[in-house]
Structure formats: C-alpha cells, structure tokens
User: Fold these one by one.
Assistant:
Number 1:
Amino acid sequence: MLNFIKNFRNDEDGAVTVDWVVLTAAVIALGGAAYTAIEGGATEMTGNIKDHMSTASIGGSNN
C-alpha cells in the first residue's frame, strides 16, 4: 500500500491533462470575450451597409 501511495504521488500524467483543460478553457474564454467586444460594432456596421444599399441607385442613364 505504501508503494502505491508513493507511485501515485510521483505520477505526473494527470498534471498534463489538467494543464490542457485550463489552457483550453482560457482560449474559449478569450474567444468569447473577443466576440462580445466586436459583436456590437459588427451589428452597427451591418445596419449601416443595409441602409446605404437600400438608398443607392443602380446604373445610370445616358441622358
């Protein structure tokens, strides 16, 4: 039983998994923060483009 405890204490395989879980969670959180930061501006820009295109005239006449 004592050998099992010593081996368990020295085993570092799970530490790599924990590192990857934390790193993945940080990347997802950063992506969410970036989306939140640009979402409002992108929506406004899309509205501006829609307004401009709905009032623009297409083509022209030779008169």
Number 2:
Amino acid sequence: MNTPTSSAAMSGLAVALGVGLIVGIERERRKGDGDRRAAAGLRTFAITALAGAVAQLLPVPALVPIGAALVAALAAVSHWKSRSSDPGMTTEIALFATYMIGVLCVIAPSLGAACGTVLALLLAARRRLHRFATELLSEHELHDGVLLAALALVVLPLIPSGPIEMLGGIAPRPLAAMVLLIMAIQAAGQAAVRWLGVRGGLLGAGFASGFVSSTATVASFGDRAREQPLHTGLLAGAAALSAVATWVLALAMTTALSPGAGLALLPVALAGVAGAAAVGLLPLLAPSPAVAPEAPASTRSALRPREALAVALALALVALLVGTAQRHFGDAGLQVGIALAALVDAHAPVASLASLHAAGTLPTERFILGVLVAVGTNTLTRCAVALAAGGRNYALRVAAALMASLACACAAAIWLSRP
C-alpha cells in the first residue's frame, strides 16, 4: 500500500469532509423531529466520510473493509429500530455510500468529489425523480427505455467493432449504434407528443420521425393535411422539421464514422438546421385554429425496430454501391451514385461518404460536395412527395423550408471553401 504525501492526505480528507457535509445537509433537512426523526444527519454523514478517508490513509491491513462492515451493520440496526412511517432505506444506503466515497476521496479526490456531488443531487431530486417515474413516464415508455438499455449495454458490446471492407469500410458496431439511436429518437418523439401537447407534440413528432425517413414523414403529414386542411400550416411545419433531423443525423453518423469529416460538416449542418428550423417553427407564431388537430395515437410502443433495421440495411447496401462506383468510375461515378441513392433517402449515401473519408480515399472537399448532392437530390424527392401527398398549399410550405435549409447549407459550404 502506497502512503500518500501529507499534502495529498490533507486534500483527500478535505474533499471527504466536503462530501460528507453536502450529503449530510441534504439528509438533515429530511431527518424530521421528535421520536420519528431519522438516525443519521449532518454530523453522522460528515464523520462517516472522514472515517472512510482515515481508514484508507492508515497503513492497517483490512481496515477499509472492516469499517465498511461496521457502517453497514450500524445502518441495518438503525433501519430496524426506526419508527419512521417511511419504510425506505435511502438514508441507510446513502450512509454506506458516503463511507465508500470517503475512501475514494483519498485515492482520487476529483472522482470522489464528483461521486459525492452526484449522490447529493440524487437525494435532493427525490420528488422530481418519483414524479418522473410514477406520473410522467408511461408504461410503454418504461418498457422502451428498459429494452433500449438492454440493447445498448448487452447486445452492442458483443458486435464486432472492426471495419468490413465489403461495407465500404463501415464497422458493424457504429452501424448497430445508429440503429439504437434511431430507436431512441422514436421513443423520444412519442414522449414529446404526450408531454408537449398537440401543437408542440406534432412538431416534435415531425422532428423525431425525420431520423427514420424525412421522405416518409413528409408523405405522412401530407396525408393528414388533406384530411385536415385547416391545419395545413402546422402539419407542413412539422414535416419541415424532419429536414432538421436529416442534418442532425447526417452529422451524428459522419462524426461516428469519421470525426474529421464530422468537424468539417459541422458548420454546413448547422446552417442547414437553421434554415429548416426558421421556416418550420413559423406555425408556432400563428394563432391556434378553433379546432385542434388530432394527436397521433400513443397506445403502443414507440419503438419500431423494423424501420431502424431497414435504415441500417440501406446504409450497408448504399455504402457497397457507392464504394464500387468510386473504384470503377472515379469522382464522377461517386457523385452519380450518391445522387441516385439519395432519391430514396439521404442518410445512407452520407454514411457511405463518411466511411470513404475515414478510409482516406475521399478528400474533405469532395465529401462536403457529396453531402450537398445527396441532400439536394433528396430535397427534390421530398418536394415531389409533398405535392403528391398533401397538395399545392402543403407542398409550397414544405418546399420553402427544404429549399431554405439547402440554400443555407450551400452558402456555408461556399463561404468555408473561400481561400
């Protein structure tokens, strides 16, 4: 066991005392009065944190686990003899955690301070956390969250992380992570509809649906615009916000596959986001119609894994086709392949471009040009779909947002390319 210097020991003791005081103050406020008051308060938590730090400092074998066992035993006795009407064990568990954090403060003071602060925040946010778990979070949302956590923590680490040449250099693990990202956005979109109300929820649903397919989002809201012509402006604004999602997801995928390309795309993507959001959010400034639009149904799980997997398969297929086009026909074949792939969806060609950039076969300038070609081609597709699905009035509003987004992105790219 390495004995720390006197300055390091004093620093660890000071941080441990600070942690004990912060957590103890929070517990003291909830301790209560009279016969039903809790056993541990400000002084108990401060002493416990200091005890953990001292146990770590003293060169006595097994002193830390002995102290931990003693604190756990005292916490158990305190809970057994408690007369409080609240049967929870939060204070007892927090007391043991404070001892362990006191030990950590000597080993790594900054990490110990961070852990103590998080513990105090968790204790202080009791009512907010309870309200979130019991009132704000629905049964379906809880199920979706648990499923996403299981996929992220159990399944994702088992997927190989190395690149596969036949996929254009895309690694399977980032591809799987994108599937999880899309599913998480699906869940967030349904929660937005329920939490933000119909107007805000529709705009949030339009934004979230764009992470799956902006074209499908434009078509879906266009059908509703034909059924509810009084709300064409609001539905067109919601569809326009899917263009924001297109840029956000393009930036996220690019950064995951090639951080350098993501940094180069950042100002262009932000300009595209600003253009689409400026037009898409205009319905919020307009007065609400007398009859509110119908809210999307939320009686089932928000997760649609088939759609997310379809996006992942499209990414892999387009990456293969675009990579082949570049190898056989050079830059001209690359741009033509990108344009053809983007007729259906812009996400897949952007991912393939990012993988080529990461492999060192595509310079940054060509990458930015390819992204603009992909988004521009897909913009034409979405405008045509808006006209067919929602009619002339709906299509004009959607096209205004999409063209504004593309124009801002192109202007940013031209400005950045100046010598």
Number 3:
Amino acid sequence: MSTSETTMRPFAFIGGQMCLDFANTLGGLRGGVTREYLCGYNDLVAWSQQAGSITEDHATDLLHKAESHPAEAIAVLEGARMLREAIYRIFAAVATDMQPMETDLTILNAELGKAIAGGCIIPVADGFRWEWSSDSRALDQMFGPIVRSAAELLTSSERSLVRECASATCSWLFVDRTKNHRRRWCTTTGCGNVAKVRRYRQQLRWNEATQPS
C-alpha cells in the first residue's frame, strides 16, 4: 500500500480540534446506523497524514512496517477505534453539561500518560513551546497528538463551546466558534442542508393541506 493510495479518501475536518475530527471518523448516528471510515490501518495513517500529525515520509514508513507486522497493525487499529469512541463519549457528555464516564477518562488518561512522557520545553523566537519526541516507526504514534488535543480542549474555555450535530442521523462533534454560538449542524452543506430541505418540503405539504378545495 503506497502513501498516495492512503490519501484517496478525503476525510472531513470540521470539528475545530484534532480530537473532535478524530471522533468524527465514524459517520452516522451512534446507537443507530453508522459508517466506519477507519476500515483498515491504512485509513488511520491517511487520516493522520491529512490531519497533519504525521508527514508523508512517516506515513510511508508506517505502511511498510504495518505490512511486515499485520497483527500489530490490526491491534493498533482496534485501539484507535476504542480511543475514538471514548473521546466521542467524553465530549458528547461535555456538550450536554454532563460528567464523562470514569471508564472513558481512564482510556484517555492511559494514552495521555504515554503521550506527554516525551515532552520538553524548547526556546523559540517569540518565547517557548512544547516539543514532543516519539518513535517515528511506532504504529500508534498518531495517538499522541490526538490525546493531547483532547486534554487541551477539556482544560480550555472552549470546552463550553463543544456541540453535537443536531441532526437525528449524525453524531459529529464540533467547536462552535460562531459569533452568537448558535451553530446547530456539523456542516451547512451536509446536515444543515438536509434539515433545510426537510423543512421546505414540510412547509409545502402544509400549504397543500391547508389550501381550500
């Protein structure tokens, strides 16, 4: 599997934070009809490359290693899906002002402990920043940026702006950065447009039903 093949499927990045975009790699409605976008390890690599958490060279190395270690790649994919669903449940709870389940926080914290272990502060032109070291050939190296993104969002003021799509067939999450904070849909061209068309058709039916015979 070449790196170019992993980028044939474009993923949606509408969440406003990497962790939410990762949660959105499952389409449809949790508890209802869903669409899995992480169907194989190559999809996980493709998503990570498109998210900017790994380079093209890293993606190529990971795909080569995955070919040589298929059982490990499958285990990492299963771990990624488990982490994704924990992140979804945490932020779905946050979006409704509820406390996340302890089991989900445990999953997040287990990965976070590994993700911050290689952190260090380095000087830059305008001050200082974090730098993270990791094994560039570790098949789960993309977990680090995801869980750090989740930790940053959970501990920031933007936590209160996390929303879940209002569609009855969508569970996608996003940070509502609109001026009035009244965004309801994951995308206006997707779920928002579907809702608009539905309202229009309902209005037409109502108008036809109320027309004098």
Number 4:
Amino acid sequence: MKELNEKITAVFDAFKIDAELQNEKGNKAAGTRARKTSLELEKLLKEFRKTSLEASKG
C-alpha cells in the first residue's frame, strides 16, 4: 500500500505541474499531458479504494 501511495503522489505532482503550466501560461501541450495524467490518477485512486477496502475488511 505504501508503494501505491508513493505512486499516487508522484503522478499527482506531475499533474499539478502540467495543470499549472496550462492555467498560468496557456501551454496547450501541458494541458494535454495533464488530461492524460488525470486518467492515470483516476485508475490509481480506484486501485487505492479497492486496496483500502480489502485492508479494512481483513
């Protein structure tokens, strides 16, 4: 679970950087990267939810 948390943090940091570049500088490529990263983040968060529920049950 610790590895999953670290991966979520790393992906979120990448998302945050790209999202800020898009918002502050109008960087279209950064916006594309942010959207792609958001999909990866969504998958990781679903995995976290599943893992967390399993841990609380067992």
